[in-house]
């Protein structure tokens, strides 16, 4: 297996992986979406709420506020040594909210939270939570814990995690009449005309729509669009709770552990048969 970074941005990355199957690619995708742990508000204690939102709706909105995650300082609740249903400093972080609209209408934002750990905060302080009329108040304690996306979507670390086959485009120059129609119809500007010839550029952007083949008036078309079924392009975008590099590395770490556990389990079964 060989991995190559194609493009990296603040919260997203595109990379190419060679030498894997579609089953392996989909396994990695599913692990990143559903098993990489992140921090989210899991329990809310409402002390006072005179806003227009019911307690349950307010708690739901708080749970969906993305929180920056510190995987090195916290344990998953089921793996924490405290074994307490209330948790401890190693498996939970406490955020408090105490806001009152004293002079007219006031919007409560994620930036109004106070936290016991400055590393566990909302990814933005501009996320609106509730609007208070004059005299209304919200006081509460929120407990954030690590969790996995397979339990609830609020623990998913990504807003995009997709893969596709690596495109292959071949042009038979001896039969191409350079009519330019394939160049004009390509939605991603993959095809360009240079020195009287049709050339391919930015191949990774191709969506395999095959519009260039369909528009060609020559039969059979001198342009052929195919794909490499052992090479995949991944597009991953973090929602801000973890750096995208950490998301990918944690996904690969979880995948390796699953493979090791499966191998060990199969070896135990073989040993039992031998006995």
Essential attributes:
single chain; 275 residues; alpha+beta; Gyrase A, domain 2; RNA Polymerase Alpha Subunit, Chain A, domain 2; 2 domains; 5 helices; 12 strands; 23% helix; flat
What would a concise description of this structure say?
The chain has 275 residues and is of the alpha+beta class. The chain is built from five helices and twelve strands.
| Contiguous helical run count | 5
Kindly state the percentage of residues in helix: 10-25%
Distance N terminus to C terminus? 37 Å
Main sheet strand line-up: 1-2-12-9
Radius of gyration: 26 Å
Shape: flat
How does the SSE layout of this entry go?
Layout: E1 2-8, E2 12-18, H1 22-34, E3 38-49, H2 55-63, E4 93-100, E5 106-109, E6 114-115, E7 128-132, E8 137-147, E9 158-171, H3 181-185, E10 191-194, E11 197-200, H4 211-215, E12 223-238, H5 244-274
Antiparallel strand pairs: 1-2, 2-12, 3-8, 4-6, 4-8, 5-7, 9-12, 10-11
Description:
- With 275 residues, the chain is α+β, with helices and mostly antiparallel strands.
- The chain folds into two domains: 2-34 and 159-236, 2-Layer Sandwich (Gyrase A, domain 2); 38-154, DNA-directed RNA polymerase, insert domain (RNA Polymerase Alpha Subunit, Chain A, domain 2, Beta Complex).
- The chain is 23% helix and 34% strand.
- The chain has five helices and twelve strands.
- It has helices spanning 22-34, 55-63, 181-185, 211-215, 244-274; strands at 2-8, 12-18, 38-49, 93-100, 106-109, 114-115, 128-132, 137-147, 158-171, 191-194, 197-200, 223-238.
- The strands form four sheets. It has a four-stranded antiparallel β-sheet.
- β1 and β2 (12-18) form a beta hairpin.
- α1 (22-34) crosses α5.
- The radius of gyration is 26 Å and the shape is flat.
- The two termini are 37 Å apart.
- The mean pLDDT is 92.
């Amino acid at each position: 297996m060989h991995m190559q970074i194609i493009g990296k941005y603040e919260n997203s990355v595109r990379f190419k992986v060679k030498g894997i199957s579609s089953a392996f690619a989909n396994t990695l995708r599913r692990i990143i979406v559903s098993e990489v742990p992140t921090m989210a508000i899991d329990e809310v204690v409402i002390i006072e709420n005179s806003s227009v939102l019911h307690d349950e709706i307010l708690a739901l909105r708080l749970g969906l506020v993305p929180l920056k995650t510190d995987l090195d300082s916290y344990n998953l609740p089921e793996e924490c040594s405290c074994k307490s249903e209330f948790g401890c400093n190693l498996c939970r972080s406490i955020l408090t909210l105490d806001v009152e609209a004293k002079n007219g209408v006031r919007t409560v934002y994620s930036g109004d939270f106070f936290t016991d750990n400055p590393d566990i905060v909302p990814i933005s302080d501009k996320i609106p939570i509730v609007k208070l009329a004059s005299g209304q108040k919200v006081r509460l304690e929120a407990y954030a814990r690590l969790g996995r996306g397979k339990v609830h979507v609020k623990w998913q670390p990504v807003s995009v995690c997709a893969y596709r086959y690596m495109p292959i485009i071949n042009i038979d120059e001896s039969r191409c009449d350079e009519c330019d129609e394939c160049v004009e119809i390509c939605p991603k500007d993959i095809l360009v005309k240079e020195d009287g010839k049709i050339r391919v550029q930015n191949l990774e952007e191709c969506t395999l729509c095959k519009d260039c083949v369909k528009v060609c008036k020559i039969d059979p078309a001198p342009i052929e669009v195919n794909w490499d079924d052992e090479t995949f392009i991944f597009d991953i975008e973090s929602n801000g709770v973890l750096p995208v590099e950490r998301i990918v590395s944690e996904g690969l770490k979880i995948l390796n552990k699953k493979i090791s556990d499966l191998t060990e389990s199969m070896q135990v079964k073989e040993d039992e048969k031998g006995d």
